[in-house]
Amino acid sequence: MTGQEVAGLEVSGLGFSYGAKRALNDVSFCVAQGDFCALLGPNGAGKSTLFALLTRLFTTSEGQVRVMGHDMARAPRQALARIGVVFQQPTLDLDLSVRRNLRYFAALHGLAGREANIRIDAALERMGMAQRADEIARDLNGGHRRRTEIARALVHRPAVLLLDEPTVGLDAEARRAITEHVHGLCAEDGLTALWATHLTDEVWPDDRLVILHRGEIRADGIAREIIGKQTLTDRFLDLTGVTA
Ligand SMILES: Nc1ncnc2c1ncn2[C@@H]1O[C@H](COP(=O)(O)OP(=O)(O)OP(=O)(O)O)[C@@H](O)[C@H]1O
């Protein structure tokens, strides 16, 4: 990234404690626009706490978050408007169709009528869900529900997409399809993605990779360079001291 470019996501010196429990300590990393960044960490590493700070569910006086150049503390509305979020827990209304789930979300963002429909169609197409637009969410399998949630997070055209363990509970085929779709969004649409996971097989060799453990960054770079001659699982175990 040159000095002129605005990073999709810039985190500097972020810290957070739950009472006496230190959950994040001096966390800094920067994701260039259009990059897919895997945030890999074992259970309890601090991934969800980081997401809560990035979405302003929690606030902290320690450190700074910038989204497309907007300081989350000084310009939260501008920063949040540029973020799409896929939470770890499913949040679809299962009684509504795929399209109506997205239409409801569009309305929350002040979008209606033709403009909303154009954006909804584009988001569903992008996630391979256009053919299922009129299906009731309850009738979808887990992978298609997750794809619908990602499409919903795209409706307001965010620049940065945050995904907190988006493939939990899905089989290998559904996980692969979702990972490919999100890589496509980055490569073809210039979306910046931060994908939290504890599954090493979701990280591709050319991905940007940040490894978090006990609230601190243990590695930051291109996955293949961090991995070296090891497998990512071996490297991950070495860096985190987590036993298999
Ligand atoms: N409400 C809370 N009160 C006290 N400690 C907490 C609270 N929530 C999380 N923690 C602790 O903060 C640390 C980071 O937790 P966090 O949930 O952010 O990790 P994570 O990487 O998202 O884990 P997982 O993969 O299990 O979701 C852990 O040690 C956890 O036990």
UniProtKB/TrEMBL annotation:
Q: Give the top-rank taxon of the lineage listed in the UniProt record for this protein.
A: Bacteria
Matching entries from InterPro entries are given as: AAA+_ATPase, ABC_transporter-like_ATP-bd, ABC_transporter_ATP-binding, ABC_transprt_ATP-bd_su_PQQ, P-loop_NTPase
Q: Which GO terms describe its molecular function?
A: ATP binding; ATP hydrolysis activity
- Give a yes or no for keyword NAD in this entry: no
Which SMART domains does the protein's record reference? AAA (SM00382)
- Give the UniProt keywords, A-Z: ATP-binding, Nodulation, Nucleotide-binding, Transport
- Does ATP-binding count among this protein's keywords? yes
Q: Which part of the chain is the ABC transporter domain?
A: 9-239
Pfam name, any one: ABC_tran
> Belongs to which family?
Belongs to the ABC transporter superfamily.
Q: What is this protein called?
A: Putative ABC transporter ATP-binding protein YbhF
Species annotation:
Roseovarius gaetbuli
